[in-house]
Amino acid sequence: MNKTKVDDINTAWFDFVDADNFEFKMTAGIDENIVREISKQKNEPQWVLDLRLKALQIYEKLPMPTWGPDLSELNMNEISTYVRPRAKKQTSWDDVPENIKQTFDKLGIPKAEREYLAGVGAQYDSEVVYHSIKDELIKKGVIYTDFDSAIREYPDLVKKYFSKCTPLSEHKFIALHYAVFSGGSFVYVPKGVKLDQPLQSYFRLNSPESGQFEHTLIIVEEGASLHFIEGCSAPKYSKINLHAGCVELFVMDGATLRYSTIENWAKNMMNLNTKKAIVGKDANMIWVSGSFGSHISMLYPMSILSGENARTEYTGISFAGATQNLDTGFKVVHAAPHTKSIVSAKSISKNGGISTYRGLVRIMPNAAHSSCSVSCDGLMLDDISRSDTIPVNDVGTADVQFSHEAKVGKISEKAIFYLMSRGLTREDAVALIVRGFANPISKELPMEYAVEMNRLINLELVGGIG
Amino acid sequence: MKTLLEVKNLHATADEKTILHGLNLSICPGETHVIMGPNGAGKSTLANVILGNPSYLKTKGTIKFDGQDITNLQTDEIARKGIFMSFQSPEEIPGISVMNFVKTIKQKVTGKSVYLGDLKKELDKNVKNLNMNSELVSRDLNVGFSGGEKKKNEILQMLELNPKLVILDETDSGLDVDAIKTVSKGIAMYKNASNAVLIITHSTKILKKLNVDYVHVLVNGKIVHTGNGTLAKEIEENGYDKYIKKGK
Amino acid sequence: MKYVNPTPIRTSINYGINSFAVADELINMGAVQYAPQTALVPTGKSNVKYANTLGQTFDDKLKFAHCYTILDSSNKLVTFDFDNENATYNTYITVSENVNTNILINVKNSNFNFSACKIDVCKNAHVNLMFLCNFDKNSTNFMQFDVNLSDFAKLNTYFINFGSKTSVANYHANLNGENSTNNLYSIYLGKDDNKLDLNFHMDVYGKNSNAIMKVIGALQDSADKHFKGTINLHKGCTKSVGDETEECLMLSNTAHSIAMPNILCDEEDVNGKHATSVGKVDDKVLFYLMSRGLTKQEAIMLVVNAGFQNIISLIPPVFPTTEILKQTLKELNYEN
Q1: Are chains C and A in contact at 3+ CB pairs closer than 8 Å?
Q2: What are the domain boundaries of chain A?
Q3: Is A421 within 8 Å of B105 when comparing Cβ atoms?
Q4: Distance CA A169, CA C14 (A)
Q5: Do A397 and C253 touch (CB under 8 A)?
Q6: Beta-ladder partners of A189
Q7: What are the boundaries of each domain within chain B?
Q8: Nearest alpha-carbon partner for A182 in A71, A321, A315, A41
Q9: What's the confidence (pLDDT) of residue A135?
Q10: C39-65 burial, b if ≥16 CB within 10 A, otherwise e?
Q11: Contact, C234 vs C264, CB < 8 A?
């Protein structure tokens, strides 16, 4: 029997470590004192502290999830929830401390900014160390700043939207997030303003046994449009790191928001992230997602189609290798008539990895004339991995068109033979097919990310019979 | 003249059933050979076995190509030596365009870098000559292609790779007039004194515009009779009965 | 109170898919066991070729089963009639090696029914098994089926479900043998405020096996349906096929459909797929049929019936197909 042994994704690219040279690192664990200390360190207004404390209470009451992967390796008593790097937020890379600058240089951020971005936010551990936005956008009224600054400079705007998309009690790790959140970006695009270059935030977790809890809040006003790119990575440590960030997206009537993510956390990361969008009338929310890293991921981006004619699309791929359990999926709620969703989720598992698609489609009784189509594809590259598809389809009205299809299996031998008959080695053939499998996602990403993604899909070539 | 392809006493099985029972075949450069035979004779098997398809097991015999023994080589090694098979049902590979695929395989076979700009010009020329729809080149490989489009795509790849021996597996005679024209034209463009063509077929429609040197009749996994080009017409008129008896 | 018919894998209760809860007394009777095989202990084998009406009183605990072994292929149709007003049935059927047979389990009920049925299909036996359920529209019914297939065993299960206020079915097949096949065909029609909970689960262990589920149904009025289909392709079941399709026609805006078609896969060399669709009858189709003189209601029922026919046409003629057809049309108020 022919098997192709496929190596782990080449993480050497991301796996460089900076000395844990922080200015302040919170003691491990989570309690009221720690939450108050975080708020004090940030000099926050009272309402934020109140919100944190409320969230902490909710966190302590809510149970751990009774479904999904086993999270018992996570011990909050060993995680430091706040690590401040030796750096203040800068607006010029020259002013960023050398070691941190080098980190982002290696990740290609400053170069990307020069070449094709309209603005960049770079977060190192718990704080943002760099934020910039093109002047012409500021003139148009676009706000793109780190979250702490947003609380200070635009309190009314923040108060209006903060936690309204993802409430504190949604689940245990959202409550934890709201108790200790730090860093992240605030984006506001005024009515009618269409950005033709993307904004990007990059999150780098450097400190071992710590967590990153960034909060991204984006408001795209009526008729406006934005492409936002989120990248994240962390070096590999032997102890657990936690990522429990939150992304709240408000896509107002007629607006368009495209949210692209490439997640490449290291293999010791517990990635319990929450992303949600509320999509208004005639608005369009597009998700593009590539999940490659983390030890355990529970990631279910969600769109709530709340206005008539709202639309959402999700294109995602996850690649689970050895020791990885990636439990991902897309959730959509059709809560208005004439809404439309298209979901395309792909997963690859190999070397004992576990890939699970756990999705939800809920079509409410008032969502007449809506349509939804879901397509899931699971590719298994060897016989020790696992691929599960667990969708829930909840339809509450007759006047809909809903279809769902899923496939799971390995690469067809016929396809491999065809490609080999053209002179490609077996390994090349598998690589070509896997790249082709991931193509719908890499097609949606900006070119540099697509190249990055192909580099992440790096296959070690061991072919042969038996 | 030095033979290009030399098959000696080839026995092959699939799913533990013996399909080829001692097949012999010799093809020299510049020649066009045709293999015909009744259903189940082993025509498609022969093509697949020459290309080293792991679904078939060679139990006896040898295959030599251009002086080298290729009996135990893997499919891709055989392909890189210069044998090209045009599939009956080419596989659909989503996510890679025809153009990018051709670039990849060309680089693989020649070992040299191929530049997209030059390739595009060359492809456009071939596409035009083959009467193909030019937008096929930017579509995903064979995905959603009609039978005829898939066939043209195979011929296009053949022209781009310019192998020493082309095996056309045409045992499915479901091709339309348009596709038959393309195959004929493609072979005419490709054929010269130093390469060779082996056509495996049921029907003679594809042979009408070609200069056929030898026609072999394959019955029960063996070649039982060889004649020149006129044999094809005779079979079309009289069928295989004469040869089936011979093969028993 | 406890959840009945829970999903077989860790999944959030918040999705509302495990929503039928029952009183404790029913739990004590074993009515809510997900894996029913533990509930049945044989009373002793009786080699019977044919059995008709059997019944147990409501008070009998569910511990013991009546066992039947089908020894040979001489009987074209083996029938079991379960039709007491309040009943619990426990049946254990073994189909011997190399036997070809057809089994009809007729379940009728006017009030409460709980039936547990375990079927072992031995090596190379080919069985067509039909559960024909004709319940009174006010009744409550719990059905558990547990099926085990040996090497080369082939089982076609036809599950036809009409009526009943609350209908909970739990079907579990173990494709233990190599080259075993289970085709499960099911049709359902929900009306009024029926609650229908179908939990079909196939565990595939043997190589070259086929686990196929085809479910076609329609929901009217305020019917509420929960469908959970799980095909679990275990490590080692190389070259097996798992294929699940569910089509649900929604005939009213107050009906509710939840479907959870799962494929769990631990083996790469398989072909697993599923497809579900939910929606109303296509407007273009309606227009075409109405342009031929049918009223809108007639047109809809024609389409629904056509959907059901896709499965009914697969039923071997040894079964009372005519009655099933008549019943289907009656249910759809489709007079002809």
Answers
A1: yes
A2: 11-456
A3: no
A4: 14
A5: yes
A6: A220
A7: 5-91+163-247
A8: A41
A9: 85
A10: bbeeeeeeeeeebeeeebeeeeebebb
A11: no
Note whether A433 contacts B: Cβ–Cβ < 8 A: yes
Nearest residue, CB atoms, B109 vs list A413, A418, A423: A423
Q: Which of B55, B75, B140 sits opposite A421 (nearest CB)?
A: B75
On the question of pLDDT at C133 being above 60, the answer is: yes
Length of chain A: 466
Please indicate whether, in this complex, the C-beta atoms of A395 and C256 are within 8 angstroms of each other.
yes
Contact between chains at B157 and A426 (C-beta distance less than 8 A): no
Identify the bridge partners of residue A277 per DSSP, sorted by sequence position: A249, A303
pLDDT of residue B13: 92
Q: How far is CA A85 from the centre of its chain?
A: 23
Nearest chain A residue to C10, by CA: A67
Supply the pLDDT for residue C13. 53
Cα→Cα distances A93→A20, A375, C164, Å: 21, 43, 71
pLDDT of residue A233: 76
Of B80, B84, B93, the CB nearest to A415: B93
Provide the phi-psi class of A178: left if phi over 0, else alpha when psi is between -120 and 50, else beta.
Answer: alpha
CA distances from B28 to B32, B213, C227 (A): 9, 10, 65
Any idea what the Cα angle at residue B70 is, between residues B65 and B71, rounded to 5°?
125
Choose the mutation target among B51, B91, B142 for the interface with A, i.e. most A CBs under 10 Å. Answer: B91
Mean pLDDT, chain A, rounded, equals 86
CB contact under 8 A, C259 and A378: no
Q: Who contacts A312 (Cβ-Cβ below 8 Å, separation ≥6)?
A: A277, A279, A284, A285, A286, A287, A303, A305, A332, A340, A341, A342
Chains in contact with B, where contact means 3 or more Cβ–Cβ distances below 8 Å, are A
**Proportion of chain C in helix, strand, coil states, percent, rounded to 5:** 15, 45, 40
Q: How far apart are CA C237 and CA C233, in angstroms?
A: 7
CATH number (3.40.50.880, 3.40.50.300, 3.30.230.10, 3.65.10.10) of B5-91+163-247 reads 3.40.50.300
Q: Which one, of A274, A262, A255, A244, lies nearest residue A187 by Cα?
A: A255
- The conformation of residue C124, written as its DSSP 8-state character, comes to T
- Nearest chain B residue to A422 by CA distance is B79
- Does A462 have pLDDT greater than 50? no
Chain C nearest CA to A432, separation (Å)? 19
B 117-146 residues with CB below 8 A of A? Answer: 140-141
Spatial contact of A233 and A293, defined as CB atoms under 8 Å apart: yes
DSSP class of residue A28 equals B
- C-alpha to C-alpha distance for A309 and A283, rounded to whole angstroms: 7
Minimum CA–CA partner of B102 in chain A:
A422
- pLDDT tens-digit profile of A355-388? 999 999 999 999 999 999 999 999 998 888 899 9
Residue A5 has pLDDT above 60, yes or no: no
Residues 6+ apart with CB under 8 A from A232: A202, A203, A204, A205, A212, A243, A261, A262, A263, A264, A265
Q: Could you report the per-residue pLDDT of B221-248, keeping only the tens digit for each? A: 889 999 988 888 888 888 888 888 766 5
Question: How much is the pTM?
Answer: 0.82
